[in-house]
Each structure stands twice: as C-alpha cells, then as structure tokens.
Amino acid sequence: xxxxxxxxxxxxxxxxxxxxxxxxxxxxxxxxxxxxxxxxxxxxxxxxxxxxxxxxxxxxxxxxxxxxxxxxxxxxxxxxxxxxxxxxxxxxxxxxxxxxxxxxxxxxxxxxxxxxxxxxxxxxxxxxxxxxxxxxxxxxxxxxxxxxxxxxxxxxxxxxxxx
Length: 163
Hints:
single chain; mainly alpha
C-alpha cells in the first residue's frame, strides 16, 4: 500500500472516537445536502487516491456475497454454484456468505481483481460514499474510514463542511 495511504488510515484510526461522535451527530442533523456533499468529496478523494496503489479493502475485509454474486462468480470460473460455495465461501456469524480467507483469493500481486467484471455487488458499491441515502450508510462509512483512505478523506471533508 502506498505510504501516503497508510498515513491517512493511521490518522483515521487515531480519530476513531472523534469520527464516530461526528457521524452520530451528523445523522441526527440529517442535512438535506449530505448526499451531494459526500458525492462531491468522494469524487475529489478519488482524484488523488488510486485503488490499485492500495487494495486494502480486498486485502483486509471480505464482501457479503448474495446468491446472484455466487451464481455470477461460479459461471465466470466455470463451476457449479454449489462447488464454488464449498470451495471459496463460509457462513459468518450473521448467517451471510463470505470468503473463507482474506486477502481475497481473486486479488493479484498487482492489486488487480481477477474477477473484476463479475465481482460481488458489495465490491462494486464499495466504499459506499458515492451513493444516495448516505445518511443510512454512516455506520458503514465510519467502519470504512480505517480501511479505505478515500473514505477517511471524505469524512475529514464532511467534518470541515459541517463544523
């Protein structure tokens, strides 16, 4: 991972309590322009952050896989969904399918995803700061500040915006 990204994540880890309080306060405020501001901050963050120089999400956290994700990945790998599930997945404490191990088996040494076009929906939507209804995603945003440097930058921008 790029050293600048490591520094951003380390700062976010040190600011966990502050970030949690801020996001809880933001949820109560429920600003009407939150989606617009967050999406703008997301775009700005990704002007300077390249996922291929990071891949921390793929290295450290696994996505929840839906049946349609399993079917799509199994087809890509020319496996029956039941074989794919047995070989690559486990059921977690929330009774959801997740990968058996991390880093993700499909993450290459070059940080490219070998199943990118067929990746799970959770991977497609990560880091969730480019979506609508951000207010409903503040909990996952908080968790993602210590995983994704872009999310940490977005949250810092939100703190500036909503002092």
